[in-house]
Amino acid sequence: MLRFLGVFWLGFVLTAAALAQEAPARGELQQAPALLARYADVPVTLRSPFFAEGRAGSYDPGREAAGFTTQAEMEAFIAALGNAANLGIGSLGRSLEGRNIPYLLFTAEGARSLEEAARNQPVDRPVVWLIGQHHGNEPAGGEAMLALAKDLASGGELAELTRALTIVIVPRSNPDGAAAFTRDTAAKADPNRDHLLLTLPETRVLQMAAATLPPDLVIDAHEFTVGGRWLAKFEALHATDFVYMRATHPLVPARATVLADQLFLPAIEAAAASAGLTAYVYQTSPNARPEDKTVATGGNAAGIARNAFGLMGAVSILLETRGVGIGAQGFQRRVATHYLAAIGALRAAAADPARLRRAVAEGRQEAARSHADLVVAHRVPVVQGFVPLVDPVTAAPRPTAVPFIDARHIEPTVVRPRPAGYWLADGEATAPVREALARRGIRSCILTAPATVSGAEAFIVTARRQVDRRAINPEGGVSTKSERDAAPVTLPAGSSYVPVEQPLVGLVVASLDPDAAGGFVSAGLFPGEVGARLPLLRLPAGAGAIDCPTKAN
């Protein structure tokens, strides 16, 4: 996922200085023969468009999307599966440039839409979402999803999984980026930073669909940079076939975290290891300074898909293969890695579906009923760790000790008593916020009569700046200071109240609390000039009874 920062040719050189020669065409890193041998194809049959007879050999960096599966090829492939009894095909919606975002729905009953599946979903059958190509220049995950869909639709042993699971596959969630072979969407924004704010059409339709048929397990398939900062800082390449990371936001239900660590990640690793593939926890080099050798896991930001789905209560896992910046080198191995990892996760879920379904349901219920304090800010300590690297010429392993920031282990810095909820003024000022909450399936209600509350906290804008939408936490747009109203406040009829006591409490707090990093306030979704009060109140527990039976969403 880390952007490729350098351009290198590794085929016939021996010194680090010589590694910096510019490669032809798209500037892809050409790996040395020893590396190509190390990351050779694996004995897995992949029935997807890229690997169709006569197609795989046609890779040409000058073609659309570097010669990978085109939008037309993907849609034709999906349409050809349409007669399968266990398959429904639909569209989440359209991208900014108008491209279709298809989904494939596998159920024992043969439901034809997400809505139909939701109406008839058995209580003991988990829902699994598999998502590919959030970033357009990371094609292996989406290709693997197509290969898996073919096998699920074709009968046989894998199709039996659809008796125990409801499976939703979104092979290409960023079709504009895929067509241009770029990380971002056509809006020049990173979709994997927008799963809380939902300002992009691609993330909006995905999250609205997930609210229609909420997942119990999510696998988000990406690729990571092979060279880039690893080569610039360590004169080496990243070595593992794939890296993994579960949801790590502090408000993710503990039951989902335990199940990810104890069941699904081991199952995924074992499935990949059966083909000789290697795995390690997700790592990135968080800055471009060559002297800083610090390495970090993925972060805890709520806007990352991995964390946003975790805040829904799902077991949410990121998988990334060794692929960004190397074109189609090792593509069969990369796609096979995602394919095997997804099958490992599906088989683990199908082996005891009641366990997954029960753990997620209980985690959501416990989150709704909890009175525990909320962690609204935290730090991640730096510890000693290592990164698995490989020599760029000889392919010899070069595990390297590094300072390591592991987001799975945090130290809370701001802890606050859990509020009763948040109040939103009526009108155009809060319309985008209320719409975003409704898209997520967050429960809110409209006050049918005035309500008087005590101890309400208001928020005054102290600064407003431009927001960096590519940042891991797209915040910094608005800074505030809190101001507690000494006298009781009357909330008018027609305004909205969002209670914290609901299964999506994590999303509520991450979205609405002014102290939440990357939330609606800090990202600038609320209007208000410096010195103005935001149309938002935080209401403490015991603030007063609020009678609002009418749902706003």
Question: What structural category characterises the helix and strand content?
Answer: alpha+beta
Radius of gyration from CA coordinates: 24 Å
CATH architecture of the largest domain: 3-Layer(aba) Sandwich
Helix residue percentage: 25-40%
Widest sheet: strand ordering: 1-2-4-3-5-10-7-8
**Could you please say which CATH topology of the largest domain applies here?**
Aminopeptidase
Number of helices: 14
Shape type: globular
**Sheet with the most strands, sense and barrel status:** 8 strands, mixed
What percent of residues are in strands?
15-25%
Tell me the name of the CATH homologous superfamily of the largest domain. Zn peptidases
Poorly predicted runs are 1-25, 59-65
- N- to C-terminal distance: 35 Å
Q: Mean of the pLDDT scores?
A: 89
Count of separate structural domains: 3
Family: Belongs to the peptidase M14 family.
Keywords: Signal
Domain Peptidase M14: 67-349
Signal peptide: 1-20
